[in-house]
Amino acid sequence: MTPDALKAVCLALNGAEETFPFNPETSVFKVGGKIFALSALEARPLSVSLKCDPELAVQLRAAHPQITGGWHLNKRHWNTVLLDGALPDDMVREMVEDSYDLIVARLPRAQQLRLDWAGVRGPAEP
Fold first, then answer.
1. pLDDT (tens digit per residue) in 56-99
2. pLDDT (0 to 100) of residue 73
3. Could you tell me the keywords of this UniProt record (predicted)?
4. Residue 63: which residues within 8 A CB-CB, separation 6 or more?
5. How far apart are the C-alpha atoms of 126 and 124, rounded to whole Å?
């Protein structure tokens, strides 16, 4: 996944915004004022830190050497994902969406409704 593709995936999510609270090099993607992804998009190798369910985080780290405990973050709840081409783009996209969903799930219901979040709408009708 390229830096532009990663940025596009993050910003395609309802209500997502890119901020730079730490420094001009680190893109911090937020929803509802809460962080769901961090990446120095110009860094090589490219990586992204994403929130993750603690049990799934351990499983992902065991299965993929490109996924490690969140760098400078709570390693129980965050993974850092090396985007060196070894992981499929669809998998990275799913991890970004899962991170976003974990954050939105903790927002007030009114905010969830404004975001038109699937978790508050329920499953799609067939």
1. 999 999 999 999 998 888 888 999 999 999 999 999 999 999 99
2. 84
3. DNA-binding
4. none
5. 6
